[in-house]
């Protein structure tokens, strides 16, 4: 199983930083009896590994070598590789950079590395063999991608940052097969202008007969990409025990950056 982590954004909402926003220290974890700061992206990596991901691909911009240095070639038993998004052309363009690595029969987990959410096993609750969204209740769905679904979980529409959103459930992560990732990529290539947002692409895919499921298993979700979100994340984590042991990485990272 793959975990795809789009990490090419510049993080303009929380700049200035002297490092990639995905390495922003948020909360901590114990290494034996010593607590150390924790990079915000580690929360997503942990959740992917817990759900069974054994291959992690970070999609980064050309200047984000600090992410390569931080994670190296492996983490918690999962192999790590990197793809490069040369220009900031949106989430869809970022994710599809990993398509050549993934076989159609493989399962793929996708999440956002500047978020903190619970429960930790949320990705474990997503079914395989199709496209399913892990959904979280939020107070202001117009800031996110709201998922409109029937009572049985069938997704009808993704409302992308829409004022007056009709659902307060947003997607925070999702799971699909490599075959469906390729199908979405092929559809994206036919659209002009090409979708920067995943939600508008999925809406077109649904209109053409695609099926997706909303799994409302999320409890809390914080976007750490703003200063206010950073404060909310610290408050949320203050109610949870710090996790250990420390994340295992290669001491001498040598994983290649793949273009």
Structure description:
There is one protein chain. The chain is α/β, with parallel strands linked by helices. 22% of the residues lie in helices and 31% in strands. It is built from six helices and 15 strands. Strands 1, 4, 5, 6, 7, 9, 12, 13 and 15 form a nine-stranded mixed beta sheet that branches. Strand 2 and strand 3 (34-39) form a beta hairpin. The two termini are 21 Å apart. 41% of the residues are buried. Residues 251-259 have low confidence and may be disordered.
Proportion of residues in helical segments:
10-25%
End-to-end Cα distance, whole Å, is 21 Å
Would you report the number of β strands?
15
Question: By helix and strand content, what is the structural category?
Answer: alpha/beta
What is the number of helical segments per DSSP (H or I, 4+ residues)?
A: 6
Shape: globular
Query: What Rg, in angstroms, do the CA atoms define?
Result: 17 Å
Order of helices and strands: EEEHEHEEHEEEEEEHHEEHE
Can you give the mean pLDDT? 91
Largest beta-sheet characterization: 9 strands, mixed
Spans of at least 5 consecutive residues whose pLDDT stays below 50 are 251-259
- Beta-strand residue percentage: 25-35%
Question: TL;DR?
Answer:
The chain has helices spanning 40-50, 65-71, 91-95, 178-189, 198-207, 227-237, and strands spanning 2-7, 25-31, 34-39, 55-60, 74-75, 78-84, 107-111, 115-118, 131-137, 145-149, 155-160, 169-177, 212-215, 220-223, 257-258. By secondary structure, the chain is of the alpha/beta class.
């Amino acid at each position: 199983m793959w975990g795809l982590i789009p990490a090419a954004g510049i993080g303009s909402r929380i700049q200035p930083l002297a490092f990639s926003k995905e390495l922003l220290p948020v909360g901590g974890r114990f290494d034996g009896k010593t607590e150390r700061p924790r990079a915000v992206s580690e929360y997503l990596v942990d959740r992917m590994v817990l759900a069974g991901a054994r291959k992690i691909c970070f999609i980064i911009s050309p200047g984000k070598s600090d992410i390569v240095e931080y994670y190296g070639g492996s983490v918690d038993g999962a192999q790590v590789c990197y793809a490069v998004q040369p220009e900031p052309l949106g989430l869809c363009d970022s994710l599809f950079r990993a398509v050549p690595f993934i076989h159609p029969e493989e399962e793929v987990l996708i999440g956002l590395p500047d978020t903190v959410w619970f429960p930790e096993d949320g990705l474990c609750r997503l079914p395989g063999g199709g496209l399913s969204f892990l959904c979280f209740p939020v107070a202001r769905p117009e800031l996110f991608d709201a998922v409109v679904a029937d009572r049985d979980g069938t997704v009808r529409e993704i409302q992308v940052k829409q004022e007056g959103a009709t659902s307060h459930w947003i997607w925070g992560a999702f799971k699909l097969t490599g075959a469906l990732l390729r199908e979405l990529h092929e559809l994206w290539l036919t659209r002009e202008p090409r979708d920067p947002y995943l939600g508008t692409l999925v809406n077109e895919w649904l209109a053409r007969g695609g099926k997706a499921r909303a799994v409302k298993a999320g409890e809390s979700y914080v976007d750490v990409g703003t200063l206010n979100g950073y404060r909310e994340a610290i408050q949320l984590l203050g109610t949870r025990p710090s996790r250990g042991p420390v994340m295992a990485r290669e001491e001498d990272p040598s994983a290649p950056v793949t273009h």
